[in-house]
Specification:
Strand content: 15-25%
CATH class of the largest domain: Alpha Beta
Shape: elongated
Largest sheet: 5 strands, mixed
Number of strands: 7
Helix content: 40-55%
Structural class: alpha+beta
Number of domains: 2
CATH architecture of the largest domain: 2-Layer Sandwich
Distance between the termini: 71 Å
CATH superfamily of the largest domain: Histidine kinase-like ATPase, C-terminal domain
CATH topology of the largest domain: Heat Shock Protein 90
Radius of gyration: 27 Å
């Protein structure tokens, strides 16, 4: 029979052993949680830096270089001084400015599409799909959301709208840039409690268990988790990719303040 004699600190040897075991388990759990949190933080920072680098490259390679060439061309025409030369260069400059404005507009839209704030998630997703189609990816899209269909009187909270849009955007970007897909299917449907976002493509696929920082997968998964949702990725080499997110529906209040629980804002 184990001894229950008290120690000077008031604990028996058995109690002391149990406390030490519990403390060791708790320390391990805390260390594991801290390690996971640190890993997520590193992934967020890496994703943010990669995104900044991409914008910097695009601004430098397209807009800045285009403006630099335009400045040199106008300077040469000014030094030449002949009216016919100036007229020709001004015409070329106008064309170049039009191209640069279009590039900047595309970059700004990627950063924060005006349609998302002004018209809502359906309009923003449809506009995104139209832009992706211009890159050569065939996209079939189906959107069925209660607010857009008049079955609810308030929109999603801004964070949820942004998450839906960014998940679709990132998945389609991966399909074109990494997967080399020819076709994709986008579905954004709402049920009683959740909005389900699914993007399937016929690209070359990849191993989702391997770290693929260039695919933006940690960012998509984190967006879903921060909203209390889930995100799954099914893919294999040569078999395309399916991204599925299930996000709890949360709506804006009538005064666009705190979110309210879905179900209390249905019409009809």
């Amino acid at each position: 029979m184990p001894s229950t004699s008290s120690r000077p600190d008031g604990f028996s040897a058995q109690q002391q052993s149990l406390l030490e075991a519990f403390a060791a388990s708790a320390a391990t759990a805390v260390a594991t949680a801290q390690s996971a949190a640190d890993e997520r933080r590193v992934q967020r920072l890496a994703a943010a830096e990669a995104e900044r680098a991409r914008w910097a490259r695009e601004l430098h390679d397209d807009t800045l270089q285009g403006l630099g060439i335009l400045r040199l061309t106008l300077g040469a025409a000014q030094r030449d001084g002949r009216p016919e030369t100036i007229a020709r260069v001004v015409g070329e400059a106008l064309d170049q400015l039009g191209s640069d404005i279009a590039n900047l507009r595309a970059l700004i839209t990627d950063l924060r599409p005006a349609a998302l704030d002004q018209l809502g998630i359906e309009a923003a997703v449809m506009a995104l799909v139209d832009r992706v189609k211009l890159l050569g990816l065939g996209v079939d899209v189906s959107v069925d959301l209660t607010y857009e269909q008049g079955r609810a009187s308030t929109r999603y909270i801004s964070e949820l709208e942004t998450a839906v849009y960014r998940i679709v955007q990132e998945a389609l970007t991966n399909a074109t840039k990494h997967g080399r897909a020819k076709r994709a299917v986008v579905e954004v449907h709402e049920d009683e409690r959740n909005v389900r976002v699914a993007i399937r493509d016929d690209g070359q696929g990849f191993d989702p268990n391997e770290k693929a920082t260039g695919f933006g997968l940690p960012g998509m998964r984190e967006r879903a988790e921060l909203l209390g949702g889930t995100l799954s990725i099914e893919s294999a080499a040569g078999e395309g990719t399916t991204v599925t997110a299930l996000l709890p529906v949360r709506r804006r209040s009538r005064t666009y303040g705190a979110a309210e629980v879905v179900g209390s804002d249905k019409t009809g």
